[in-house]
Amino acid sequence: MFRKRSFHLLSLLLGAIALTLLPSTAFAQGGADVTEKSTLLTWIPFLPLMGAIVILLMPKRLEGLYKQVALIASAIPLVLAIQMALGFNPDIVASGAAGTAPQLQDYTVYGLQYVHHVAWIPSLGVEYFVGVDGISVVMVVLSTLISFIAILASYLVNKPVNAEKGYLSGIAKQQKGYYCLILMLASGMMGVFVAIDLFLFYVFWEVMLLPMYFLIGIWGGPRKEYAAIKFFLYTLAGSLAMLVAFIFIYYNSAPLGGATAFPMVNGETTEHTFNIMFLSFSSTTGWGSFFTQNLAWILLFVGFAIKVPMFPFHTWLPDAHVEAPTPISVILAGVLLKMGTYGMLRFNWQMLPEATLHYSTMVAVFGLIGILWGAYCAMAQTDFKRLIAYSSVSHMGFVLLGMGSLTSEGINGAVFQMFSHGLVTGMLFLLVGFIYDRAHHRNLDGFGGIAKVVPIYTGFIGLAFMASLGLPGLSGFIGEVMVFIGAFQRHPIITVFAVTSVIITAGYMLWTAQRIFLGPLNEKYADLSDMNWREWATLVPLGIPVIVFGVYPGPILDMFSGALNTLNQLVLTTAVVN
């Protein structure tokens, strides 16, 4: 009774917070102007952190409420993010700031909405500056959705399996630490997509590193320590490259339009700036020398390529996925990989367009290598989870190919592929986790004919497989076709080779389905239970948009096409200006 009352009190408290926020979120339904300053983008990333603090302070006798608090702390940002997207105006794109003096009177000049901008460390020119444009708003919705689904899925894997091997695949141990860390991870992810200050972006980026390390290292599989350390070392190397690039960019920043200093929101000025928008529009006339842009571009590209992960920096991903618990694999594939390509668009493409134009073919080549390498490696796997991990390497290669095309179709297809891949891969890792919790193994050759006993499970995984291989009518098809159309305009030979991967992907997906679901039933699994309602609850929110946006992709494309076309034109204009 005490626990139930405590849960009700916590629910009311967090619900009251949500209701308090609603009037200040600048929703279109309320007639508010989304271009006005708003605290919405502060609440979205910090509510999960607040939830983590609440759980941390809760006594052990309330252990049964940890997951409820975590679920509420992730559900509220999802609701706010969806309403933010509904109120977002896609017609507001960056314009009119190229080569002019930096100003803070009108954020729409930089294409920003829902801005929250206050002073933080004025002596260094650091500000707390958050906002969204067409590129980031879709990623905010994706990150909040995946975070909510991952925490909901944590309800399903809280029991030990394979105990004789000395580990838990679920989260039966140390639940307080688990939910605190996963909420911190969610907070960092959401913050990355809204940060408009280099320093703030880096803080959010680093906030994710340690939680993911511990989530794999404590709650992972038999080789969890190896996978966690490998993940940590790779991502730390990428973070260091980014840090050097950010410092280098900061000290090479200089205002344009006759200005002698950058304005700050508190009325002061600074000689150098971390403001991403100021740096972006300085780059339209080439801030610094071409050597400066090249050095910064390479450092940033390497840092983000490790996160994608791009060949040859991809080897940490299969190990991390195989050892991570199911909800963490969902976050890793659904959001963290997209942060790498988002970072490239936000910094390499937007801030360093001259170097981007110079290296675009190289990016497309790396995309092709990733597409083919990931597909061939996936075909060779017998571990279900490792197969999906390598398929992610292949599908993120399509994103790089589209970005490297420097065409409207290609770059829009790349971002659509990022969104679609987050949904589809999230479904796949959930489905792998569900069968693992029942069979206690992931060996593809150890099943056989189970479609007869788990028809609902078979239907869901069939949907995810078809979306992953690009079946028309599902979201995976839209992104791939747009990438191919755009890439063929600039890199026809590369695109022809990339198209062959469609056959390879179909091959390993269908072969996997045959080994697991078709043929004679393995009597060992004659009593296998089908999906329960909680498992349905985690898959339906991902499956519905896969179908809806596969048939009608317009709402998503309209959200970011204006911002992406403006960004692509910025890169191409440097060929004329410089």
Describe this structure in words.
With 578 residues, the protein is mostly helical. The protein has two domains: 1-285, no CATH class; 352-578, no CATH class. The protein contains 20 helices and four strands. It has helices at 2-21, 40-57, 66-87, 134-154, 175-194, 198-219, 224-252, 276-282, 290-307, 316-323, 326-351, 353-379, 384-405, 408-439, 455-468, 475-490, 492-499, 501-517, 533-551, 554-577; strands spanning 113-121, 126-132, 262-263, 269-270. The strands form two sheets. It has a two-stranded antiparallel ribbon. The chain has a two-stranded antiparallel sheet with strand order 3-4. β1 (113-121) and β2 (126-132) form a beta hairpin. α11 packs antiparallel against α14 (408-439) and α14 (408-439) packs antiparallel against α16. The chain is globular and about 75 Å long. It starts with a helix and ends with a helix. The model is unreliable at 18-32 and 160-169 (pLDDT under 50).
- Mean pLDDT level: 85
Q: Level of helix content? A: 55-70%
Question: Per the principal axes of the C-alpha atoms, what is the gross shape?
Answer: globular
Most strands sheet: 2 strands, antiparallel
Q: Rounded to an integer, what's the Rg over CA atoms?
A: 23 Å
Low-confidence stretches: 18-32, 160-169
Distance between the termini: 71 Å
Strands of the widest sheet, in order across it, are 1-2
